[in-house]
């Protein structure tokens, strides 16, 4: 009887811990959702952790409990932004030219969140310094992104998918810098679409797009 009672107590304890972990993950997700909105509106330099905490209904200490320091939060925000984009535009599920054209929509979405674009651009540049805490994050992110784009170009039978992938990623990142300096004079989505069509023109249209020739707009 005592053994049964102890087992029931253990099960209840495990259930409570699992429930606590789930609530903690949900709270962190809500914090990151709000941080993406806040940084997108105000820029990460102007936004404060105290303002974010207030938006989330938390104390400053409570926020730090969930996200750690500001550096950790900034990287978590970028990772969360990537996950949101991947889900919304089905970047993993799509393949070939369909995946490549989805990147035009990502560029269009980025134009609506200048603070996040600034955060990515500044942190990725700073992370090139040896020993920078964000270096591993960006190294892994670039490797993963280039491979996903390379795979898409390979599906299109591009003659040099690896080089095409690096060019497209470089074009998208370079356009972000130019756009931050001149947001009214540059249409990132249009420029990405133009570059992409030039790359796909190197392969037969049927293999490159899987659809009849048409403008991407």
Please sum up the structure shown:
Helices cover 75% and strands 0% of the residues. By secondary structure, it is mainly alpha-helical.
N-end to C-end Cα span: 72 Å
Series of H and E elements: HHHHHHHHHH
Mean pLDDT across all amino acids: 86
Number of strands: 0
General form = globular
As a percent range, the share of strand residues is under 5%
Portion of residues within helices: over 70%
Largest sheet entry:
none
Radius of gyration: 22 Å
Can you tell me about this structure?
By secondary structure, the chain is mostly helical. It contains ten helices and no strands. The longest helix has 41 residues, at 2-42.
Please name the defining characteristics of this protein.
217 residues; mainly alpha; 10 helices; 75% helix; disordered C terminus
Give the topology.
Layout: H1 2-42, H2 49-55, H3 60-67, H4 70-88, H5 96-110, H6 114-126, H7 135-155, H8 161-181, H9 188-200, H10 205-209
